[in-house]
Amino acid sequence: MPKGRKGGHKGRARQYTSPEEIDAQLQAEKQKAREEEEQEEGGDGAAGDPKKEKKPLDSDESEDEDDDCQQKRKGVEGLIDIENPNRVAQTTKKVTQLDLDGPKELSRREREEIEKQKAKERYMKMHLAGKTEQAKADLARLAIIRKQREEAARKKEEERKAKDDATLSGKRMQALSLNK
Prior knowledge:
- This is PDGFA associated protein 1.
- Residues 1-116, 150-180 are annotated as: Disordered.
- The protein is an all-alpha fold.
- The protein contains 4 helices and no strands.
- The longest helix is centred in the C-terminal third of the chain and has 47 residues, at 133-179.
């Protein structure tokens, strides 16, 4: 970049839209959507003005109820009716309708976690009873260690007795030599 210039090439040609232009664009899009919707509704009837088919105000069904029942469909949804078995409609329940006493279905992760805990408990009971491979190996190792410790204790006892005998015999010799 030459020394004399400040700034880069990235901000030179930026143009910002004013809020009024944005509002005008949004209104134009809404108007276009309304016209398309009216054409879809009026397209099924006789060839005429799409705005002419208005419902009378004193009829039993109002426009609000129709909008609630039939949501605006996007893309090809309006042409094809598809029932998706995986899609669950969200239903809200009142507090009085909730059933807290009934059995609660657990998720897969919760079921697996509970099964894992139960398996661990079963293994610990078997291990304490000495029925598992690891418990048998531990008990065998403990038996070997006990034998080694008993042998080491016997050897110490024998060495202590031998030492005591040696000191007693040494004291007797001294006592005999003093008596002479």
